[in-house]
Request: fold
Amino acid sequence: MKLIRAVRRPAALRVLTACAAVALVAAGGGASQATAVTTTSAQYSGTVPFAVSSITVSPQSGTFAHCTGGSGGTATTLALPNGRCRTSVTVTEGGGSAYVYAAASDATAADGGKGWTLCVPSTKSDTPSCANSDNAGVPGGGMLPGTDQFALQAAFSKTTTWLGSTNTCLAPGSSPTSCASLASSSAPLNLTLFGPSQSTDDASSFRVGITFTVVPG
Amino acid sequence: MRRHDSRFPAARLHATRVLMAGVGAPVVSGATSTAGQFTATIPLAVASITINPDTGTFGSCTGDDATALTLPDGTCTTNVDFVESGSAADIDASSTAATPSDGGAE
Reply:
């Protein structure tokens, strides 16, 4: 029965017991039983319950609209060169504070032809820079997309960011390289697509995917 | 019992430090991270072209007869109007080989 009770003691209590034994030895071994313990170590292992963050995107598919710029387009169709269209998606982060990231894919042509490559008007290590030297009207400066290129700007939580092909923090911190943690919340993400200067493929539509990732923190 | 209790806050503090170390470098590698996907269609303005007329006859030929091509190396001209509408577009043209009306060699 004593053995059973010892097994059931909390790990931390076992640590204390081991420490007490060591203390007896250090005191000179006044008790003969302590001489059997010549050296000892103890290990504590603890489980840290971790808040599981989750992200929900609604809707999961949409269509760009509210188009402007370019030549010969309509409010619902992207015109070239360098027209722009907008869409919106609601991003809900749950389960505690977390960092929220987004990454965009290249755009695929509906007819299977040559797609468009994601670019950023400024410099970003993971994504090609946009190549149109006619750069009038780029928010924040930089180049507009060139032939078969497009750019995606995300406005989220009062912050505007150019999306890259790898995770981009949607809520940058105080320094350019830091990311701000967001409390559980639901907020709209407004996406503005900047079209290419020219498109090699003449498909009637293209498609782009955006992946959102949440990391607890 | 008091010493026992005092150990757990220390353990929790240690665990917190580990988590904060992960927070300081926001690398996307957490096992508990989850992801969501959104896909969007980009409708493209369509360009179109209209040709008028769609058939015609060459004229204004060099040589004695302005309505007939003379050899060698005579020239004739014709005009066609085209209207491009919709999105801005490049306009390319190409020509077939000329086929004789009697079905002979081109």
